[in-house]
Automatic annotation (TrEMBL):
Localization of this protein: Apical cell membrane; Cell projection, Microvillus membrane
Organism whose genome encodes this protein: Ictidomys tridecemlineatus (Thirteen-lined ground squirrel)
Name of the molecule in the record: Cadherin-related family member 5
InterPro entries membership: Cadherin, Cadherin-like_dom, Cadherin-like_sf, Cadherin_CS
Gene: CDHR5
Main location: membrane
Assembly and interaction partners: Part of the IMAC/intermicrovillar adhesion complex/intermicrovillar tip-link complex composed of ANKS4B, MYO7B, USH1C, CDHR2 and CDHR5. Interacts (via cytoplasmic domain) with USH1C and MYO7B; required for proper localization of CDHR5 to microvilli tips and its function in brush border differentiation.
Amino acid sequence: MGAQALRWPPLLLALLTVLLGHSPGATAQTQVCSVDKTFLQVQENENITEALVNISVPDGQQVTLGSSSTPSAFRILENQLFLSVIPDYEENTMLEAHLECKRGDTVVTQLRVFVVVLDVNDNAPEFPFTTKEQDVQEDTKVNSTVIPEAELQATDRDKDSTLFYTLQEVTPGAGSFFSLLGVNRPALRLDRALDFYQWQNMTFRLLVRDTREEHQEPSHTATATLVLKVLPADLRPPWFLPCSYSDGSICIQAQYRGAIPTGHTLLSPLILRPGPIYAVDGDRGINERVIYSIIGGNKDNTFAIDSDSGNLTMTKSVPSPMTFLLLVKGEQADLARYSVTQVTVEARQAHGSQPHFSQSLYRGTVAPGSGSGVAVKDATSPSQPLRIWAQDPEFPDLNSAITYQITNCSEFRMAGEMVLTATAIEQAGVFYAEVEARNTATAGVATTVVEIRVSEQEPPSTGSVPIQDDQHFSIVDMAVLGGVLGALLLLALLGLAILIHKHYGHRLNCCSGKAAEPQPHGFDNQAFLGDQEANWAPAPSPSPGPKSVEVPLEPPSPGSPVPEPPSTESPDPGPFASAPESPVAARAVDSPSAVRSILTKERRPEGGYKAVWFGEDIGAEADVVVLNAPTADADGAGDSDSEDAGQGWGPRGAPAPEDDSTYI
């Protein structure tokens, strides 16, 4: 943009002439230097190449730049004034040229030319930082200023510029916590309560623009990064674990329960449920140490608690059953906050509490030729020794008081929970040892059985098959074998289908809605059929000697198939004096585990008898079989001598079954 001259009023021009030492009359009488313009305006950053001012110089005189001119800003060429620099408003807002007209060394005339530099928006604003990190306490109050305006302000070399600020979230959702105080005031303000456990770090981008509108030209912007680190505040008391959380500020903490035996002082810490007494600072970011103490319910100072670990121990025994309700306090080491929980300890009568083995049969192995003191290996894990252990389900604290011994086998002995050889084992064989667990505190006893096989230890198979040079089976051989096995499987399935159709075809017909034909032997339980049909007459009631076993019988489900009654043409073999033989009756009669059977007269409301087999001794296992009677004939025929005749019972006093026979 070219230089522009201003029109000077005549009065002002006369004043300047007087100031320069000339009068209008002198100008007319004496030839002096003059310029066509003394005041100009130029825009910054513009490279002006044409002359700013034309200078009139009388003959015999020459014009030069005086010392008061703006340094290096002007030059005179052929009586014309030129700019030597590109004007910059931020450096000089006005340039001055001092002209001196001389005749020889004598200054005849002095002139001044003023060049005003106009400001242009040519500079971007600048932040005093690239990234600013700021710590913010979790308990900072809402609407308070987190970072003051002076720390976030940007500067602009364009002195007349107005800056506009914008806060942009980088961390998703962080924008709901902070905002700027105003579009021209970049102070950072908290708008929402902080939560250390949900928002520990939040990042923002702070943008500044030197124009109100984003698309205005020219427009310059600058950005900086704000990183806010949330510091945890001491807001929460200690929490006893385990606890369930409703949010980050509330914990429904645990209460503890345990049991101790009367008359005993346990030396080790009590075993509690759901776990040991343990509390942590609710402000996990601070994690202040917790100190434990008993503040109530400790009658006669029976218990003590370790202030650091929280382990609860006994100081004395409890003579009689009672319940302690202990109040345990967990307090921060800085004494700022605390919480209290309840520990319920029941003192129970310990006598008679029985240990319990996790298995009824353990299996171990030992190599033949083993000497005395060799550990028996676990058959399921041959690399590990066999361990046999029991626990007291009522007093887990007393598990350490349980001792073990083998009662019926001199070849082996117990060493704690391990089984060792007591003598040299020379030959292969199988030993069955009874292990007795005795709780020395409660006098409870339990036993289990260990099967020990004396055999060479085979190395575990890796599952890989070594490749031989002479393979015995080809692919064709394996295919033929597969075909044969497939054919055998098909024949087995066909045979199974025939058997199902033969024995249960009438039921399938019944279920399909058709009337089933009467079957000659409609018993579900074929184990109770001999050469002739079983007699359903009740046996005499059992003597009061053996124990009776009550077997709950479930009523038949609605819609269940009902078996057809047996044929009435079968000969009556006469009443039996005892119940049908149990499947386990195949044992020898002289065997200690031989059983005798009793068929009670008690009948089910829905039909059927309960039959119970008892061993000769109380310790024998009991086999229970529920027998169901066939239904009565359609014409109502039955034994007229039956005491239950006319009540819907089957022939010979047997109840009409409504469901299949059931083994228990």
